[in-house]
User: Which sequence fits this backbone?
C-alpha cells in the first residue's frame, strides 16, 4: 500500500524516464536523469521514499529492478575517475576465465587518496610509472566510460600477482585469450617485458604458442 502511494507521488512521466534510463544503462545516473528533466531533489525524495536505491555518488537503481552484470564495475569507474579496473575485475570484463570476484579490483596512482565505497567492496592496488601507462584501454561499461587494463596486460598482471590471484587463474586466462584470439603471443610478450615479468610469463607462453 505504502509503495503504491509513493509511486503515485512520483509522477508517471518521471518514473517512465527513470525506467527508460535503467533499461539503457542498467542503472540510473543522476547526470542522465538531469538531462532528461528529472531534478536532483526528485531523486533524493525517491531515495527517501524507497522508490530508488542509492548505489553510490550519482548512481541509483529502481527498487526491485535487476542490476546489470557489470553494475559494480561501472559504479567504481564513475566514482574513481583516476582508477583503472584491473586483475580479476578486468578478466571478468574481458570475458576471460571463470572467476567471479566478490570485490571490484582497481588500480590507482600511489599519490591518490584511498577510494571509499559502501557498495561495491573494493580491492585497491597502487602503482606508478609504466604500470599506469602500459596496456590501458577504455571501454563503455553499463553506459560508463571506464579505464581498464587490456586483455593481454591483464593476463600479465595476473602472473605478476600470482601469489594473490593464483597461478591457475593466470594460466586459464592466458589459454582462453590465445585460443579465443583476444590477443597474440607477441602482445603478451610485449607487455610482460614492459612490466618486467617476462621471465615468469615466458615458459607458460612458449608452452601454449
Assistant:
Amino acid at each position: 500500500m505504502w509503495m503504491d502511494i509513493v509511486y503515485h507521488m512520483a509522477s508517471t512521466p518521471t518514473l517512465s524516464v527513470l525506467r527508460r534510463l535503467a533499461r539503457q544503462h542498467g542503472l540510473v545516473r543522476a547526470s542522465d536523469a538531469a538531462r532528461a528533466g528529472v531534478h536532483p531533489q526528485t531523486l533524493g525524495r525517491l531515495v527517501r521514499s524507497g522508490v530508488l536505491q542509492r548505489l553510490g555518488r550519482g548512481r541509483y537503481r529502481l527498487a526491485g529492478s535487476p542490476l546489470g552484470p557489470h553494475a559494480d564495475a561501472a559504479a567504481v569507474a564513475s566514482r574513481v575517475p583516476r582508477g583503472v579496473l584491473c586483475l580479476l575485475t578486468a578478466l571478468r570484463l574481458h570475458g576471460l576465465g571463470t572467476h567471479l570476484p566478490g570485490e571490484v579490483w582497481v588500480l590507482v596512482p600511489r599519490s591518490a587518496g584511498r577510494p571509499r565505497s559502501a557498495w561495491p567492496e573494493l580491492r585497491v592496488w597502487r602503482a606508478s610509472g609504466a604500470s599506469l601507462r602500459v596496456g590501458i584501454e577504455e571501454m563503455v561499461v553499463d553506459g560508463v566510460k571506464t579505464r581498464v587494463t587490456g586483455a593481454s596486460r591483464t593476463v600479465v598482471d595476473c602472473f605478476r600477482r600470482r601469489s594473490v590471484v593464483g597461478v591457475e587463474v593466470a594460466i586459464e586466462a592466458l589459454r582462453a585469450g590465445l585460443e579465443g584470439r583476444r590477443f597474440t603471443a607477441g602482445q603478451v610478450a610485449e607487455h610482460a617485458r614492459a612490466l618486467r615479468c617476462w621471465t615468469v610469463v615466458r615458459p607458460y607462453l612458449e608452452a601454449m604458442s
The chain is about 50% helix and 20% strand.
